[in-house]
Write a sequence for this structure.
């Protein structure tokens, strides 16, 4: 939880919601597999995920001026 936000994962979908009113701030699907663990960095634009059966961490970066989300293996 960062700044009154909460992360939610369900199968291959990740959502970021506000705790105040449940407003959806961000939603995207992963094509890398089922999410086992995730963490949002303090800048709130970067999410790190670990996927079942994968030895890599994945970094999801939301670019501030667009809704594009990119994934890189760490």
């Amino acid at each position: 939880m960062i700044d009154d936000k909460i992360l939610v994962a369900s199968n291959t979908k990740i959502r970021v919601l506000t705790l105040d009113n449940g407003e959806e701030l961000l939603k995207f699907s992963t094509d890398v597999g089922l999410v086992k663990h995730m963490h949002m960095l303090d800048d709130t634009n970067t999410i790190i995920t670990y996927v079942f059966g994968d030895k890599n961490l994945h970094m999801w970066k939301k670019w501030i001026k667009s809704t594009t989300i990119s994934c890189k293996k760490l």
The radius of gyration is 12 Å. The chain is about 0% helix and 55% strand. The chain has a mean pLDDT of 72. The first strand starts at residue 5 and ends at 10.
